[in-house]
Amino acid sequence: MIMFSGSQGPRLSLDEGSVFDIGSCVVEGIDLAPGRAIPDDGDPRIDHSLEGFLFTCGPDHIRHREPIAGSETSYPLHGSFSANPAHSIAVTAEDDDLVARAVVDVDLAAGGRAQLRRQWRLKGDSGEVQLSDTVLNIGETAFPTFLMYHMNLGARHFDGGTRLEGAMLESGGVPWAFGEGDRDIFCVPAGHGGWAELRLGPIAAIGGKRLKVRFRTDTLPHLQVWRNQRLPAYVLGIEPVSHRWADRAELEAAGEFNILQPGESRDYGLAFSFV
User: Fold this and answer.
1) Domains of the chain, with CATH numbers?
2) Residue 235 has pLDDT above 90, yes or no
3) Given a cut of 90, is residue 40 above it in pLDDT?
4) If 0-12 CB within 10 Å is exposed, 13-18 middle and 19+ buried, where does residue 90 land?
5) What pLDDT, on the 0 to 100 scale, is given for residue 43?
């Protein structure tokens, strides 16, 4: 892990062994990542990733496994990115900001190759963490590209006053323990241009601060949120995502695949801060 922190904002660890994702996220001395309080999906790649504060789902598939057409195999759980190591890592200071860059190459489950060019920026003036990603088709065949950011938080830090608030939510907000029972999920449109914003809080464990998440809606037009309190899991996930909640066949039939031709790229971005 590479430690990434400045005079303001959270103290992060960046996982060079898996997509340069975020492992720990420490605010006011509290690590908000869920650690082992996660559901076991039977895939050690994903178990490792789910333990951290943010992991990247895609680029050839998101969500649960689905069969690859014409094959006896399936797209892996949450796509092919997870567990691929980063290279060309550089951490530099740019004026008051701290910047970390890396490249991740991935062999896709159905053939082809993709590359993630990733930049983390920690703003010196505000403590906001900004992520800029470019997914590039470096193979010889086209593929439909998907992306989802899983921001996972240990729900043990929440109480009855902690809420999700955003313009995309019904009535502008819901309790963090929305729905019924010990787990639930929803996926809603978040916009089709500009940036969407979601807030989670107040979180008493970090002095009543709120997590503010912003994300690009030109390439991440949906927001998915899930929670799981089925012990030993105790986690809430905030997930900006490229596609609505539907299986691949339905998305393809509706013309909603985003095809990336060889040499083409697609840009994604999000930011978060504790305010």
Assistant:
1) 2-274 (2.70.98.10)
2) yes
3) no
4) exposed
5) 84
